[in-house]
Write a structure and sequence with these properties.
The chain has twelve helices and eleven strands. By secondary structure, the protein is of the alpha/beta class. The chain folds into two domains: about 100 residues, Winged helix-like DNA-binding domain superfamily/Winged helix DNA-binding domain (Arc Repressor Mutant, subunit A, Orthogonal Bundle); about 180 residues, Rossmann fold. Strand 10 and strand 11 form a beta hairpin. Helix 3 packs across helix 4. The protein is elongated.
Amino acid sequence: MVIEDIFKALGDPTRLRIARLLGTMELAVGELAQVLGQSQPRVSRHVGILCDAGLAERRREGSWVFLRQSEAREAVIEAVQHLLALAEAEEPAFAALCDADRKKLAAIRHAREAAAEHYFARHAGEWDELRALHSSDTEVERRLFEAMADAPLGVMLDIGTGTGRMAELFADRAERIVALDKNLEMLRVARAKLQHLPTAQIEMVQGDFYDLPFADASFDTVLLHQVLHFATDPLPALAEAARVMRAGGRIAIVDFAAHDHEELRTRHQHARLGFTDRQMAELLKDAGFIATPPLALGGGPLVVKIWTARRRAAPASLKTPALETAR
């Protein structure tokens, strides 16, 4: 990227509007087209120019392509946004365009929230049925927050973010949070829930816990909240978590203690009926972690456990122990 490319990229009214919008939130290319009142192919061409200049970056999420400000040139992005803010203050015509764009953007946010509410409405009965079996979400969150309060979170990965609640809970304490989920519909629910957070603070990523789309040693903290029971083989998922963590980083796993509620396999697609402390200790050790004593939360037929551990300086060789049954 050279300075000429930056000024060329900004030398168009549509691209100035796109840059201003991206200072507000991450947007799909289709959403940008809706706000700008232009065809998607035309907007895609403008997006390509901004990306080539290093002012924006694309991220694919299923069939959707999202656009956000480039994280590689933070100082340049700050300078551009400052310049655009000055332009709004001194150029009434540009200010009117930006104001209209923001009103359309507000409509998009409202649509996201409505879609999230519709999704919750369709699944509320299933989730309420499961919640009734264990201690309250409020108590689980309080104990988890306390368990993670003794050290900085740094850059955090929330694996299986679901509704985005954990990312929201820890947003004020983490430097940055990456919220990952395999399910596109859940990611859109989470995006609606987290859209009030600054775009530099939260990133939404589609991915599988068996094959995390991140470089080694990318995170200081990893969280799996009510996720690991969906793993037929939890060890590779934990080994992947260890791979993307820095030495000394911390993992927190919130899940069920071993139980015999077989109906959860069919009604909620649970691959494992919880974990014993012995199982979890062996899994964490084999994946490259040093475990600390777990916390247990009663309050219902299902006991929720919070297991935490530190990443060893060097990863352990991956081996698959013959785990005892979770029942």
